Amino acid sequence: MKGLLRVIGTLLMIWGVVVLWDVRLEMYFYWIFEESGPVIVVVGVVILLVGIVLHLFETTNSPTQEILDGPVETFHNNGQLRVKGTKKNGKWDGLYEIHYENGGVMEKGTYTDGKKCGEWLDFGGKTVTYPPC
Fold first, then answer.
1. Residue 1's pLDDT is what?
2. Residues 85, 72: contact at Cβ < 8 Å?
3. 52-81: b (≥16 Cβ within 10 Å) or e
4. How confident is the model at residue 124 (pLDDT cuts 50, 70, 90)?
5. DSSP 79
6. How far is CA 99 from the centre of its chain?
């Protein structure tokens, strides 16, 4: 169910573009465009706009953006842990880890007031040192 609105929004955007492209092709056939062209253009634009709104709604309403204080856990579509951490005043604060879809650790470290600090296991398994916490 996660990401369903985004998928529907993307499909509607594609459908809207196809409808608008079809109108462009119909312009070459005068008798078709003259009778149904304006209606098809309006339908295509509406479908495209609904798709964009659904796509953006799903993108901007993820659980990590809704939580301002407290523990945060999000999961991949397959149920594996994606992000685990804590937010304070809307910023990451404390231990933080992000995982690949297979469960492996992608990145792990500590945040203080939204900034990385201390030792971090970074992408590719490298250890990176940031200013102390």
1. 46
2. yes
3. eebbeebeeeeeeeebeeeebebeeeeeee
4. confident
5. S
6. 17
